[in-house]
Design brief:
about 20% strand; about 25% helix; 5-stranded antiparallel beta sheet; 10 helices; alpha+beta; globular; Dna Topoisomerase Vi A Subunit, Chain: A, domain 2; 5-stranded mixed beta sheet; about 300 residues
């Protein structure tokens, strides 16, 4: 079962008086289906620095708007990593510690294609590097994770880390994006629904089992700040299905509503794991990739 949320900010140039700063800078929310404005309190002031009011329709009935908040953050230009660095890493993908697992799961040919398609590479210690490339082809970050080459499980004793500032220096400003984001620019995927998961590994594996969906990853429950406009605007006009890990459904249900509103997309959330997981699996916090061996037909329902 998939729940859908259907509100987005008005994309026209029309502005209203902001209930907070009283300037005519307030962009209201519109119902995607009826094309009508929601009640006048729901919208966002585009004076992000001096006001920052953002009231969004958090649940059916238009209840519980968010309180006024002042946006802060780093407004320096985004720093990009050299594409040549990614190229070297991805060309050596067969040395990364996730590759033996992918080869066993599929085949060497499919595992290799998967790494090339999703920019999965290695570092000199043969740990896996998931490169984040944005919709314009810029290299935003590299996330390093150590995996068990047999089980494909992450080594819990070694924390994942990002390499942007390590390479560009402390004064740089690397910004994350969705893992796999550049695939949104592919003409062949324009009409595909977008599936969003937490794990980069899961997104890549899911693309083989369910190629009719374009799979992206956030990198964590709250990874890459994926409901902020600067990140999620690439999903404007798309149909999005969220696939939360076990234990994350409620949090992602709320974030899905925000995503629909901020990005201007239709958002649904899959309850497959909630319906089929047992108690032990819930304790482990499994994700959709752990179920692909028996769930393909169920996911098609």
């Amino acid at each position: 079962m998939v729940k859908e949320y259907k509100y987005h900010l008005d994309k026209s140039s029309k502005k209203f008086i902001c209930p907070s700063c009283k300037e005519k800078r307030f962009v209201r929310y519109i119902d995607i289906d009826t094309k009508e404005y929601l009640p006048e309190q729901f919208g966002r002031c585009d004076r992000e620095i001096n006001c920052g009011l953002h009231n969004y329709p958090k649940k059916e009935g238009f209840l519980f708007p968010t309180p006024k908040r002042k946006e802060t953050g780093n407004h320096n230009p985004v720093s990009y990593l050299p594409f040549g660095l990614l190229d070297k890493s991805v060309l050596k993908h067969s040395k990364c510690n996730l590759f033996p697992y992918l080869k066993e799961l599929f085949s060497e040919e499919i595992a290799s294609r998967l790494c090339l398609d999703y920019f999965i590479g290695t570092n000199k210690w043969e740990n896996t590097v998931f490169w984040r490339v944005d919709i314009n082809g810029n290299v935003r970050e590299g996330k390093v994770i150590k995996y068990d080459p047999v089980t494909g499980r992450r080594n819990k004793e070694t924390r994942p880390y990002y390499i942007g500032k390590k390479i560009l220096g402390d004064e740089s400003n690397p910004q994350q994006c969705f893992f796999g984001e550049y695939l949104l620019a592919d003409e062949d995927s324009k009409n595909k629904p977008v599936g969003i998961v937490e794990s980069e590994k899961t997104a890549a594996i899911a693309s083989i089992f369910k190629p009719d969906i374009l799979w992206l990853a956030t990198g964590g429950k709250f990874g890459c700040k994926w409901t902020e406009e600067s990140v999620c605007k690439v999903l404007a006009g798309r149909t999005v299905i969220l696939f939360p890990d076990l234990g994350a459904y409620d949090a992602w249900e709320e974030k899905g509503k925000l995503l629909a509103a901020v990005a201007g997309c239709k958002v649904g959330i899959s309850d497959f794991l909630e319906k089929y997981a047992n108690e032990e699996e819930r304790k482990q916090g499994l994700d959709i990739a752990d179920y692909f061996d028996f769930s393909r037909q169920i996911l098609d329902d």
